[in-house]
Amino acid sequence: MLVETLANLFTPEHLAVIAACTLYGTVVGAMPGLTATMAVALLVPFTYFMDPLMAISAIVATTSTAIFAGDIPGALMRIPGTPASAAYVEDAHRLSRAGRARSTLCVSLFAAAIGGLVGVAMLALIAPQLARVAMQFSSYETFWLACLGLSCAVMTSNADVAKSFASLFLGLFIASIGIDVAVGYPRFTFGNFELYDGISFIPAIIGLFALSEILRSARSGETGTRVTADQEPLPAALREALATLRRYKRNVARSSVLGTLIGALPGAGADIAAWICYAVSRRFSRQPERYGQGHVEGIVDGGSANNAAIGGAWTPALVFGIPGDSVTAIAIGILLLNGLTPGPRIFTDSPELVHTLYGAFALTNLIMIPAGLLVILVASWLLRIPRRVLMPIVLLFSLVGAYAITNSAIAIWIVLALGALGYAMEANGFPLAPAILGIVLGGIVEDNFMTSMLKAQGDLLAFFERPWAAALGTLTLLVWALLLWRAARDALRRRSPAS
Amino acid sequence: MKQVRSTLSTATTLAFGIAAAAMSSTAVADTSDQCGWQPDRAVTVIVPWGTGGGTDANARRLASLLEDEMGVPFNVVNRTGGNGVVGHTMLARGKPDGYTIGAATVEIDTMHWIGLTPLTYRDITPIALIDRTSAGVLVAKDSPYASLDDLLDAARDNPGELTASGTAQGGIWHLALAGMLKAEGLAPDAIRWIPSKGAGPALKELMAGGVDVATPALSEALPLVEQGEIKALGYMSDTPMEQLPDVPATGEALDSGWTLGAFVTISGPKGLPDEIACAYEQAVDQAVHSDAWAEFKQSRGAPVVFEDRQQTRQTLAEADDKLGDVIQSIGLAQ
After folding, report:
1. CA dist., res. B244 & res. B242, Å (int)
2. Which of B86, B174, B298 has the highest number of chain A CBs within 10 A, making it the mutation to test binding with A?
């Protein structure tokens, strides 16, 4: 079996496909506005002419590297390339402005590769068991999980608590635009059917992060580059990155495992995994006050969690043929097209496919290291380009990317409107990250709340009736109680010296 | 693409050599003067639903076959949003010059009843029908209901107790269930509908015990039914599904003979000239009857179906009446 799997993996064509897709994924992921899903959708026509093992490897290679590469524009330009990089973009960017772009990106790269390897190891060892647990999650459990995710916005923010809440609620408001899934009623669309589908996530993130950054640099009249011109040499950056990972090896292990588990849950994905692991990391860190100020610890956690989640997301798809996200939906389509039906029996009927899938995952995460280093080397030269030249180019790419997602000019308006909003928010000390989290999770929270209420006919106790729901619900309420208690304690402390 | 092209034109190549192969599609189209239209630049194919779904897969496969036949690129563009309103509107309002076609689906017969849009099937030019799928009635593997009658009796005795899911409120699979209940003399909401974002999430809810019944397309649940993870009690068609011959067809099993299927058409904008529509009809006819298409359909567990322009128009009109009736009876009509 092992020999056969290796023979399948190490054919020249197969290696060539993986290498090509690794580079392709890196390029797409590094472009602000182009997502991992889009990269995979563009691959589909080619997969018709590949054998299924190769097609699956191509998809796996493309997604894994696209999620890592999303960190690159995040660190260099403060524009997360994919939503999964948004959690720690502030830290990454501050570090690279301090001249540590290469070592920061190397940390991201190695954390991503380790996370990916842990993800596939868990997939190989406990996929069926993991899928059984994941399938216990109905709308009640998903609702609590998403609530827990929303709490991260407040837990991870260094800004004023009131302003963090304001930002979060702005995000939730933006998420409520469009037709709601429960009763099909259009909200805040002003009769414009282009808005029925809501504010797409990609234009929103481009507006809030990219355009506001461009506006800010135009306003401040920065002409030269503010980043120290001399880059760290690559060997030094590598040493630094490896030392960082050794220092935070517990974080890597914790976030890789947690990321895989979160990725396996229906409705959660790489982005939620990154947020939750970042929040957990801050909670248990010895230096929580440094998060968001350019601290590398959170990058270790978020970077390994989002790549680990990719492996996790394959569990429900492989074991039950039910896609966890749009990427696995496309992958299932390709399997079906080749006469392979995902489901409990795929493990006995086509073990060679399952093993090759694991092998391709592992191989991709290894090939990603040299490919990623190459891209980091090239990309860090970007910092030498004067911002007044770089920023208009970024704007152009961003707008094209936003348009490409929806094929609609409304995306450009969304970028412009949210860009102005993001600029105004930052200028007045409102953090952007909670707003993004609100946009990501708002729909999930609402859909699952409405679905649960419809099922229970308005009985709120139903949210605690199922075992997992009761556990997650209690945990969420405890976290909230803790946050409130700490806020009250801080407020009292601040008042006592004054009085 | 090379593979497909070579299988399509092997016979021609043998007879006339390579030069003739490039002309083969023109030769077919020329059989009737009326249908002589040929695209000379790229054609846009609008899909109102997302990548990875059934409509998208059908449209993409067909587009690649049409590309080989007509010799110009067919670019598939997913215009999702508004429960299909956005894509269908873009299709209907497109320029009727033959360079915009699209995959209009059964929802064009439902969304105007719900008040989402004034658009109806009269605003598009049907070219052909290429896909048909019927709803399945599904329950979890540990469900107490072993047959459709058990389920209907339970719903009759305790109306509003059971819940079902499969798509959004007022979506085609919601109408499938409500229509069946009504046809069998129950209240259309005797089994309460829990909206979901599609078949996948609904099946997940069913397996997690969140709902009692799911009624998505049976083909979507095929692997799970075959492997015993969920039970299929009925198939809303006149004949059983080929892969699942033991699942009773509601057309035979129910007194009312209720059936309901969703379909995918290839259609053009309103006012597409006959000459162009006819040329596409012929091209789609040929593509749908190719080996490549048969293979594709088999992989999805669906039969090859084809209806020409007249039949498709009639299907659209009949479904419009039937679905309008159901939507009014469940109080969703605006």
Report:
1. 6
2. B86
